[in-house]
Design goal:
Number of strands: 2
Strand content: under 5%
CATH class of the largest domain: Mainly Alpha
CATH architecture of the largest domain: Up-down Bundle
Shape: globular
Strand order of the largest sheet: 1-2
Radius of gyration: 19 Å
Distance between the termini: 63 Å
CATH topology of the largest domain: Four Helix Bundle (Hemerythrin (Met), subunit A)
Number of domains: 2
Oligomer: single chain
Number of helices: 9
Length: 224
């Protein structure tokens, strides 16, 4: 007797969440836009239940604001919000990098080197979506290697606020290349177990990214 597999609701909810998250990060749902549950359900071919659950998770992650009488709105940061968020992330990543250099296992280091190789391949193809996902995974693994759960949680929450901006800022060719080089410096510092060097390169990397984002926002404002 043939057994027909039933849809896994957990997988459906997770897939819906990840798809909505990508739409927000990649700017396909622009900042300040309302998330219409009915339209999203139709476009993703799901019911409104997983859409609602995904929106709740996105709000908890800081990618969406739930506003009374307006519903769910894609987060839109002010100039000051952007600067303040990057300043916090720079310190969080600097500290996590410092700890990671002291605590990272050989297994985690090998995984990071493999991800770096994949990310370089995505960069060579100018595959921005794949590059960004691998980039984010590298930063997450460095945070996890610090072996400080509070630090990891704080980084995840703060970084979610500016993911869309970090994604868009990679479109500048010269500065994208510099960011890739900084990632290789991170790997080199971790392999050398040089915590001071790692802290410095992580902070520099974030602050350089902040400057690129601010330049991007300024250019966009001039063309409005």
């Amino acid at each position: 007797m043939e057994v027909i597999a039933q849809p896994n609701s957990l997988n459906l909810h997770e897939a819906t969440f990840q798809k909505l998250r990508s739409l927000l990060v990649e700017g396909l749902i622009p900042p300040g836009s309302k998330l219409n549950e009915r339209e999203l359900a139709e476009s993703l071919h799901v019911s409104r239940t997983p859409i609602r659950e995904a929106i709740k998770r996105l709000a908890a992650d800081g990618l969406v604001e739930l506003i009374a009488n307006r519903g769910a709105i894609a987060i839109e940061l002010s100039h000051a919000d952007v600067i303040n968020t990057f300043d916090v992330i720079a310190q969080l990543e600097g500290y996590s990098g410092e700890l990671a250099a002291q605590r990272i296992s050989n297994t985690a280091l090998s995984e990071l080197e493999a991800l770096q190789y994949e990310m370089m391949a995505s960069y060579a193809r100018r595959d921005l979506s794949s590059y960004y996902q691998l980039n984010l995974r590298i930063h997450q693994l460095i945070s996890q290697a610090a072996n400080n759960s509070v630090l990891t949680q704080l980084f995840s929450q703060a970084n979610a606020r500016i993911e869309a901006l970090r994604f868009r800022s990679n479109q500048n060719g010269v500065k994208w290349e510099r960011a890739v080089e900084e990632h290789q410096e991170m790997i080199d510092a971790l392999k050398a177990r040089d915590s001071e060097r790692m802290r410095k390169v992580m902070i520099l990397h974030v602050m350089n990214k902040r400057d690129v984002v601010l330049e991007l926002l300024k250019t966009e404002a001039q063309h409005e």
